[in-house]
């Protein structure tokens, strides 16, 4: 079954590359705007062998890990407060949804005004990109704890912090993992938005640098790297973690 899926994906990718080569061959766009697959592959190869892409990746992951950790921490705290306090949820809850709807790139001018063209400005954008979606998921997790769990625990004399720690936290774990997965995805997008307007280093900065010098082969190569990393990390790390948690909690077969 898995082998068939792999074959389908490889064939689909081959078809996309073939269509790409066809469009290039019939000169629909100028070569400087639409490079061939071979030229993009050469840009990928040279970028990694010369170390430029490796350095950019290292800087981007440094920004990402710092911002994602803070986003998960802050989002969890905010989500717990909103989930446990009805008054806080009724007052701040709607604004949390409004903040979540703001595209990450909108925060970039504010980050630059506050912190200048520094790496901390990029981390700030990453934090904002992941915090709100994490908070929404944690709040939903607490709101969706089965009421009979709470009633059963109270019947056995559990209340207050003990009820929260022993009943609500374990019941919220599946939603928490979904929040972490979404926080990663939103933070990764926010990272690229922040680095695009930064002074580097990072993949986003390298993308803008290549665009400024009309190196479309490098632009497309970096776009491919960004997409592949997003897909690989999601499928090999966060998706598996989420599925394992769901299975353990009996939510999926």
Automatic annotation (TrEMBL):
The chain crosses the membrane at residues 64-83, 95-115, 121-142, 163-186, 219-238. PROSITE patterns: ABC_TM1 (PS50928). It is found in: Cell membrane. Residues 57-237 form the ABC transmembrane type-1 domain. CDD domains: TM_PBP2. Signal peptide: none annotated. It is a multi-pass membrane protein. Gene3D superfamilies: MetI-like. Its main location: membrane. Keywords: Cell membrane, Membrane, Transmembrane, Transmembrane helix, Transport. It comes from the Bacteria. Pfam families: BPD_transp_1. PANTHER family: ALKANE SULFONATE ABC TRANSPORTER-RELATED, MEMBRANE SUBUNIT (PTHR30151), TRANSPORT SYSTEM INTEGRAL MEMBRANE PROTEIN (PTHR30151:SF40). Belongs to the binding-protein-dependent transport system permease family. This is NitT/TauT family transport system permease protein. It comes from Virgibacillus litoralis. The lineage of its organism: Bacteria, Bacillati, Bacillota, Bacilli, Bacillales.
